[in-house]
Amino acid sequence: MKKITYILVGLFVCLFIIAYLVLQKPGERSANSTSTGLLFSIDSLLVDKIEIKSSALSLLLEKHGAEWFVVQPVSYKADQANVGQFIHQIKNLEIKNIVSNKPEKHSVFQVDQTGTQVTAYEKNAEKAAFVLGKMTDSYSETYMRRLNSNEVLLVEGISSYTVNRPLKDWRDKTILTVPKESIKAILFEYGDTTLSLTLTDSTWYVGKDRAKQLVVDGILSSISNLQADDFVDSTMSPKVTAMVVYEGIQLRFSFMKTLNKYYVQSSNSPQWFVLEQWKTNQILKRKKEIVEFNKK
Length: 296
What we know:
Structural class: alpha+beta
Mean pLDDT: 88
Strand order of the largest sheet: 1-6-10-9-8-7-2-3-4-5
Number of domains: 2
Low-confidence stretches: 18-35
Largest sheet: 10 strands, antiparallel
Shape: elongated
């Protein structure tokens, strides 16, 4: 019995040694496994162009003056916060390890053509160029390869989600922003039916009926900073089914039954946006939903 035990223990030790040697094969892991440092030296304020290329999207961002814009595949103002976050991540990328220098291993870490290629420029001079691969199982580190280099790096400080955002998340989703305290009256139009909500002596009324303050607060919060869920880039002209007017601005709504969503457009821009139904329901209210006491 003891002999069998010794054999099993010896076999286990052998397998452990073999596994260790396989994992430590030359070219798979660098001797500088504890090396750290920032990957690129860039100035966040001087970065003025970013290219992102993947199998799903080819994106070009450019800085015009103080603001960022999406230039390709559409022309539109960019989400300034998302672009700023991305530049911050590139600047603070930290090398945690060199995991391979073999070209045939690029596909394993998805730093080949399946990865996402990123190039950042300062005054048209290339300052950072790399291919971002897959994330580790911990989701706190990512595999990366500098462009024109075979070394696969393990880096910290960037998320593949940040880089591979869908196009809609690189665009500014603001439909309309108005100071909440400036709104004193709101007109609702549903076909031939109109509903007027007005502020009198710090109290909101629908006609002569006092309005529910909680409901009014919800409406004001929604229309003062209205953010889209997506964009409509076709030349279609949806049929307007409802309008909300305030501060000299019209919000036009069109319910898309097939999508169970609303298209919305403000009188300040020709752009149509997509708005989830639950968001629209926070704005389009009927009298019975607003008045404090329903009259029978």
